[in-house]
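Anyone up for a design puzzle?
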């Protein structure tokens, strides 16, 4: 029996919605004129307008993916592609419109900023409505702002990197993002600067039938270090929304970037994201990817290891409940010698949910003495659920080391019995086993986020989310 809509919204912590009070809302559907309109409203330079128009034409010419989850229900004519929630960006939480401020108060972003963040950016619908950066970072030359501001204030950097790692023709949804992108984050860390505390961006969809298309660009110069965290939520509606982001990251020589995602979109959202890193000599890129919500997720963070000694890691969690498909994985491409990559994927499926690991490892000629480790572990909680693994390895070098392991298991009766014999109820015992299964990934997340992720998993195990 399906829960009433109001019951679902009560159970799902972020299912609430606020009255829509946009200062501008484009009409539904997409054509070249709307793309030009978005660029005009943002007062963008000609090169960006031209980039958008070119991308729109690529999008129109690309077919929908014929592999993976079924995306045939997406109706591009029934989506609002641009909604401006405020006239100007707020300089403090108090300046935000009441409904937006209440949204972020309830999510907890202001409290997080006070406690453990070096910088925070909050995007509501199409635009970043608030951002703050620790003054000490600004003095070090660190730039952390929304992408729209970066296009205006740092055009020479943006134009050098924007769309070079993920060009519009990469895939249909990258082309769509390139045509209608709005908001997102721009991070520039100068040579040798270590950012001690995380930078966070929070993305919120509030409106129905809405498309959010943020664009993120991170550049870590030689010897620098930064940790970027993003969180995502949306209300539950009876109609579907679309989230199609693009993330480009450049890790220079001896630099280190960690990108953590705790994604908890509501179950009416299609989450279709392209994320990619260019990693130079002795650089180190880490993706920590946690996918709890959405109706369908397709996300495969990748690292292009172009410099000798470069390293890449993807640690991912996917949890699929009823009517959910989590199609996630990673791509590691070795182009230089002495490079190494590590992929650890953990997936849980229950109540008919489906998880898939879809991965690519490519070792090119000349990438000798490289090493690859891939581990895919799936936990299936009932007879209705499903888990699939689609590993693909393309190896064109002999002098390398590759390890691949995969397991599929159910919750063991003996383990459940042991925990229950120690006084735990069956739901608590199941939650404890699931959390233990995920521990190799969750231990890599900052404590505050790990606590929140564990709480979300417990709610999922109780059937309380969605």
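Challenge accepted. My sequence:
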């Amino acid at each position: 029996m399906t829960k009433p809509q109001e019951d679902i919204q009560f159970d799902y912590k972020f299912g609430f919605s606020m009255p829509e009070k946009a200062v501008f809302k484009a009409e539904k559907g997409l054509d070249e004129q709307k793309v030009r309109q978005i660029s005009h409203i943002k007062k963008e330079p000609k090169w960006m307008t031209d980039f958008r128009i070119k991308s729109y034409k690529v999008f129109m010419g690309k077919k929908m993916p014929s592999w993976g989850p079924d995306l045939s229900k997406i109706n591009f004519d029934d989506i609002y592609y641009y909604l401006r929630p405020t006239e100007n960006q707020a300089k403090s939480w108090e300046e935000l419109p009441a409904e937006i401020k209440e949204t972020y108060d309830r999510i907890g972003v202001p409290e997080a900023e006070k406690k453990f963040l070096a910088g925070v950016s909050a995007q509501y619908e199409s635009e970043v409505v608030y951002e703050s950066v620790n003054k000490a970072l600004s003095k070090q030359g660190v730039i952390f702002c929304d992408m729209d501001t970066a296009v205006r204030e740092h055009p020479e950097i943006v134009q050098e990197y924007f769309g070079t790692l993920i060009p519009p023709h990469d895939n249909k949804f990258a082309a769509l993002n390139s045509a209608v992108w709005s908001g997102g984050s721009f991070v520039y860390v100068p040579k040798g600067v270590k950012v001690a505390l995380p930078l966070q961006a929070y993305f919120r969809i509030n409106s129905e039938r809405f498309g959010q298309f943020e664009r993120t660009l991170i550049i870590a110069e030689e010897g620098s270090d930064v940790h970027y965290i993003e969180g995502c939520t949306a209300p539950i509606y009876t109609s579907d929304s679309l989230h199609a982001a693009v993330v480009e990251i450049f890790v220079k020589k001896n630099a280190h970037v960690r990108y953590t995602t705790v994604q908890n979109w509501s179950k009416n959202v299609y989450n279709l994201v392209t994320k990619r890193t260019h990693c130079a000599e002795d650089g180190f890129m880490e993706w920590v990817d946690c996918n709890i919500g959405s109706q369908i997720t397709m996300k495969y963070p990748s690292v292009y290891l172009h410099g000798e000694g470069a390293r890449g890691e993807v640690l991912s969690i996917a949890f699929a409940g009823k009517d959910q498909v989590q199609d996630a994985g990673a791509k590691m491409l070795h182009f230089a010698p002495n490079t190494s990559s590590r992929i650890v994927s953990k997936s849980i499926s229950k109540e008919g949910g489906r998880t898939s690991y879809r991965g690519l490892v490519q070792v090119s000629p000349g990438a000798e003495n490289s090493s690859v480790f891939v581990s895919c572990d799936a936990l299936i909680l009932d007879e209705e659920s499903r888990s699939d693994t689609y590993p693909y390895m393309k190896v064109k070098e002999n002098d390398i080391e590759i390890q691949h392991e995969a397991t599929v298991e159910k919750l063991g009766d003996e383990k459940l019995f042991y925990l229950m014999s120690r006084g735990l109820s069956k739901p608590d015992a199941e939650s404890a086993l699931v959390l233990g299964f995920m521990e190799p990934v969750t231990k890599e997340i900052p404590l505050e986020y790990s606590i929140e992720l564990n709480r979300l998993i417990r709610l999922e195990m109780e059937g309380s989310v969605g």
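A detail worth pointing out: DSSP finds twelve helices and 24 strands in the chain.
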